[in-house]
Design a protein that fits this description.
The protein is α+β, with helices and mostly antiparallel strands. The protein has six domains: about 5-115, no CATH class; about 150-205 and about 305-460, 3-Layer(aba) Sandwich (Rossmann fold); about 210-245 and about 260-295, no CATH class; about 555-605, no CATH class; about 615-840, TATA-Binding Protein (2-Layer Sandwich), CATH 3.30.310; about 850-940, Orthogonal Bundle (Death Domain, Fas). Strands 14, 15, 18, 19, 20, 21, 22 and 23 form an eight-stranded antiparallel beta sheet that branches. It has a seven-stranded mixed beta sheet with strand order 4-3-5-2-6-7-8, sandwiched between helices. Strands 1-9 form a two-stranded antiparallel sheet. Helix 16 links the parallel strand 7 and strand 8. Helix 3 runs antiparallel to helix 4, helix 29 crosses helix 30 and helix 35 (about 880-890) packs antiparallel against helix 36 (about 895-910). The protein is globular. The relative contact order is 0.07. The structure holds guanosine-5'-triphosphate (GTP). Keywords: Nucleotide-binding, Repeat.
Length: about 950
């Protein structure tokens, strides 16, 4: 038997461990009964090996378990409970490779390996690791059939209009530089596909498509041949690293004696075309033979690295659409004009930029912040627990117009960016920024600086985990047919058309493979494809389509049908888009848009350009209401019937008139403290607020002051009931909410149950929005709830804020934001928004004397059973780091109870005596204070 102490039990389900221990002791006891020991070992071994095989046969498990019951079960020393425990552990082994490995090592001192599929999945880049288990397996299996190694740089060039983006792109790409083009203002996005040459330059990828695919197949065959071909087949060596590649000018001495590598592979493959693993690829090899003879073979100058350069329009009007194309797999050039001070106001004739959170009179610094926030949101933010590797290169333009000599200009540039990055102090956004920054004069095309920028871009790309990832040969054909359709001018495809293309392929993909192939193509940035109920019927081949759609809603023609005049004025004034107006806009659009109006709607919702208010009963469930709730609010009760069928287009709203305090802190009325949703890392996409406004419009009537609707860009007010008004507003990364009442009843408190209900609606909506850009379980940490000092006369941005969870540990804090330092006590701070919870905790506190005792294993087990939706926050409250939590979650995320138990054990081990029942209970309360009521959890608190 193995040395149990040395074997890691990390991440193993406690129940599986317990059962495994039974197996260990039984195996020890029957050691001397050779026959029984042999039978038991054979059964355990057979199940272990089968469970690790790729196409495991369930019959093996059932057969062997039956064999165990028939031969050994219920005999001495296999008591009834021991027999059950062993059957249990066999089942655990079948489903969990780590249990199998643990059992085999601890009982028989045998190391059993991982399946090749498991190993392949482990090598996936981080974003593909998030594929669901079934997709991951399909992908790994497709890779086993053959793969190519992908090295693609996706370069996003962003910055204010006129900063010099197009000029820089022209300088980076040889063919454009040679043409000495005069840049014209970019409309939407210009996408240039390039190939990296061995001298480091980039040339446009205009080569014959078939030739390109020929190269890809050939490279892929090399990979296949290395893993699958018998060793006696000689395959051409992989190309040397770029730096070692000979230049075209220096011909290779052995070149004449060498066979064309493709021919050599074709020869080998033809000879063995009937062999397993080769048969699949034979037709592909034949296909590549069809390459026209007149295509020059120029592999010597081009590398296998592709670069797609995205030149974004700088007008703020387009900013929201740009976010759609940003993802984790991009390298960014963020450009700033060095002749413009950071605090200078941007002069833009078109004021439609307000929708993306940039107000009409924004400064260059605000534009810079907008871009970094957006990059963070759409690339690193999703994997908050993961480490962020730099992908953003800052570039200053108009060096020629700066004062001073070269050295002085460099210093100015450094100071400029240091100043621009100051607002991000302490934020992980800084981790995106590459330490090297550049200063360019775009008018000096031959400046070696452009070569340097290209080199750094490549260096950065090589460090990303997706660099050199594998892509199944099987999927190349589909990519090829999408390419062909794009070349024919197709902007978007219905799924039916894709299915036809697929059926025409030599090796059509299965339905699941096809969906996965499209998903991966989307991740690579070649298409837009979202596997959601509303969007999975459409594939967008050309990003420009999205831009055109967007423009329809922002810059529409005003020849309206008189019948719809009223709806048009609702659109103009309230930004509320009724179906009549929507259809009118669609009718006047190009065919590709008007014929896909339903998809247009869904895409615009997805892009947050317009928001459809939630239907609570359907939409809120998944995020926060996993478990049956007895006491939750009936979220559908307050539907405002006037505005059921509409969208809100928040970019059309105007700013509120000053002073804003008249809305946020009205005098002479009863009011709750200000409730604040503070987003982590000081960043909140402004669309979250706009969408929250849409939810509110769907739920309550818009509040009126005289004849004016209180609906503005950044602030909105709603009638709750009788005299109650809810006002919500936002600034930067904080959304504020306050309920006021002009009641004449000066004695009673505000209705705290109503406040609780409103808070939950706001909270759950925000969680849903966050859930679309953050992945579970990180959603629950997307924002924190704070209460602003109730004594503050005028609500000031980000001042006098108290984290609600801290009141679970301490009953009072000092407020230093008010002119006079004073105490703020729990009951006062939480009286309206959280009173429901406070009352509940107080009832349970009656018999809490025994709590100062160490937390026992049974307490941990119980906590893991009752914690419910606060399960992630509890770990954070107990002081576990995101990294610790993520590690455990990776292993145990599919079994919440075990996951919680595992981190509770980690907490108890690290805290020792301080891990008391009381501290556990406080942390549980803090984790649940924001959540809807849940009887099971609350009883335990
Ligand atoms: N002096 C000088 N002019 C520059 C520089 N970079 C760009 N320009 C000029 O600025 C103008 C705008 O340049 P573009 O490259 O079109 O700017 P852009 O950022 O692509 O503009 P949009 O597409 O409208 O967002 C052109 O006339 C360029 O020649 C530079 O480094 N120095």
């Amino acid at each position: 038997m193995g040395d149990q102490e040395e074997i890691s039990t990390d991440g193993i389900d406690p129940e599986a461990l317990e059962n495994a221990r039974v197996l260990q002791s039984v195996a020890q006891e029957i050691k001397d009964n050779e026959e029984h020991a042999k039978i038991l070992k054979s059964i355990v071994e057979t199940i272990a090996h089968e469970s690790l095989s790729e196409d495991k046969d369930y019959l093996v498990l059932t057969g062997q378990t039956r064999e165990f019951v028939k031969t050994l079960g219920f005999t001495e020393p296999f008591s009834v409970s021991r027999t059950k425990a062993i059957i249990n552990v066999l089942l655990f082994m079948w489903n969990h490779t780590n249990v199998t490995r643990y059992v085999m090592k601890s009982v028989y001192n045998e190391d059993v390996g991982k399946s090749t599929v498991d190993e392949m999945i482990e090598q996936f880049p981080s974003d593909l690791k998030q594929l669901d288990a079934q997709s991951a397996e399909i992908f790994a299996k497709a890779l086993k059939d053959g793969f190519e190694v992908v090295k693609n740089i996706r370069l996003m060039v962003v910055g204010m209009f006129g900063v010099g983006k197009t000029s820089l792109v022209n300088n980076l790409i040889k063919d454009l530089r040679d043409k000495k083009l005069t840049p014209v203002s970019t409309e939407g996005i210009d996408l240039r596909r390039c190939q990296l040459m061995d001298d480091g330059d980039w040339c446009l990828d205009e080569e014959h498509k078939l030739f390109k695919y020929k190269i890809r197949y050939r490279e892929a065959f090399k990979e296949v041949s290395q893993i699958q071909m018998p060793t006696n087949i000689t395959v051409p060596p992989l190309p040397p690293p770029i730096t070692e590649m000979p230049n075209e000018a220096e011909p290779d001495a052995d070149a004449e004696t060498q066979l064309d590598p493709l021919e050599e592979i074709q020869k080998h493959v033809s000879e063995r075309k009937d062999e397993e693993g080769i048969r699949e690829f034979f037709p592909l090899v034949l296909e590549t033979k069809e390459t026209p003879d007149n295509i020059p073979v120029r592999v010597a100058t081009k590398t296998d690295i592709t670069v797609s350069v995205w030149d974004f329009a700088g007008q703020t009007l387009y900013y929201s659409t740009h976010q759609f194309f940003l993802n984790k797999r991009c390298i960014y050039l963020v450009l700033m004009d060095m002749t413009k001070s950071l605090h200078e106001y941007v002069k833009e004739d078109d004021k439609s930029g307000t929708w993306c959170g940039l107000m009409q009179d924004c400064t260059y610094l605000e534009v810079f912040k907008f871009w970094l926030n957006a990059i963070h949101m759409y690339s690193g933010y999703k994997s908050m627990a993961g480490t962020i590797s730099p992908t953003v290169i800052l570039v200053g333009t108009r060096k020629d117009e700066m004062a001073g000599n070269d050295e002085e200009k460099e210093i100015q540039k450094d100071n400029y960016f240091d100043e621009a990055l100051k607002p991000f102090k302490g934020s992980s956004i800084l981790q995106h920024i590459y330490y090297k920054k550049f200063l360019v004069n775009n008018l000096s095309q031959e400046d070696p600086i452009f070569q340097e920028i290209r080199r750094e871009i490549k260096l950065l790309a090589e460090k990303q985990d997706y660099w050199g990832e594998k892509f199944p040969v099987k999927f190349i054909q589909m990519e090829q047919s999408l390419d062909k359709l794009r070349d024919k001018g197709k902007q978007l495809l219905q799924m039916a058309e894709i299915n036809i293309s697929n059926s025409l392929l030599l090796h059509p993909l299965t339905e699941k493979e096809l969906a996965l192939c499209l998903d991966i193509q989307h991740r690579h940035g070649n298409i837009l494809y979202f596997d959601t109920k509303e969007l999975n019927d459409l594939v967008v081949l050309a990003p420009q389509w999205i831009i055109e759609v967007f423009k329809c809603f922002i810059r529409h023609k005003r020849d309206t049908i008189p019948l719809h005049l009223e709806h048009w004025s609702t659109y103009e004034e309230l930004a509320i888009l009724k179906p009549e107006v929507f259809n009118e806009i669609m009718d006047r659009s190009s065919d590709d848009i008007k014929n896909n109006r339903e998809h247009v709607m869904h895409y615009m919702e997805h892009l947050d350009v317009m928001a459809k208010p939630l239907k609570f009963e359907e939409d809120l469930e998944p995020t926060d209401l996993h478990q049956p709730q007895q006491d939750t609010v009936d979220l559908a009760v307050n539907v405002n019937p006037n505005f059921v069928d509409f969208h809100i287009v928040p970019c059309r709203l105007r700013k509120p008139p000053p002073p804003v305090e008249q809305f946020t802190s009205p005098e002479h009325c009863k009011k709750t403290p200000v409730l604040c949703f503070v987003f982590v890392q000081n960043f909140m996409p402004p669309s979250f607020f706009h969408r929250l406004v849409a939810v509110c419009i769907r739920t309550w009537p818009i509040c009126k002051a005289g004849r004016k609707n209180l609906l503005y860009n950044g602030l909105a007010a709603f009638e709750l009931e009788s005299t109650y008004v809810l006002t919500i507003w936002y600034r930067d990364h904080i959304i504020y909410a306050r309920i006021t009442s002009c009641t004449s009843d000066l004695i009673s408190d505000l209705n705290f149950e109503k406040c609780h209900e409103v808070r939950l609606i706001l909270r759950q909506s925000l969680l849903k929005f966050a859930g679309q850009s953050l992945e579970d379980p990180w959603t629950s940490t997307a924002f924190e709830e704070h209460i602003q000092c109730p004594k503050m006369k005028e609500s000031l941005h980000n001042e006098g804020m108290f984290r609600v969870t801290s009141f679970m540990y301490c009953s009072e804090f000092a407020c230093t934001a008010c002119p006079e330092r004073h105490a703020i006590v729990r009951e006062e701070a939480l009286k309206d928004w959280y009173k429901v919870k406070l009352d509940l905790f107080a009832t349970n506190d009656a018999n809490c004397d025994v709590l100062n005792t160490p937390a026992e294993e049974s307490d941990l087990l119980k906590a893991s059973e009752v914690i419910g939706n606060g399960f992630w926050l509890l770990g954070i409250q107990l002081g576990l780091t995101e990294a610790q939590m993520s590690k455990l979650y990776k292993e145990w995320g599919n079994n919440r109870r075990t996951f919680v138990f595992k981190y509770l054990v980690t907490w108890r081990n690290s805290m020792g005596e301080k891990a008391t029942l009381q501290s556990l209970k406080k942390a549980m309360r803090a984790a649940c204070v924001n959540l809807p009521n849940d009887k099971k959890t609350e009883k335990a608190l």
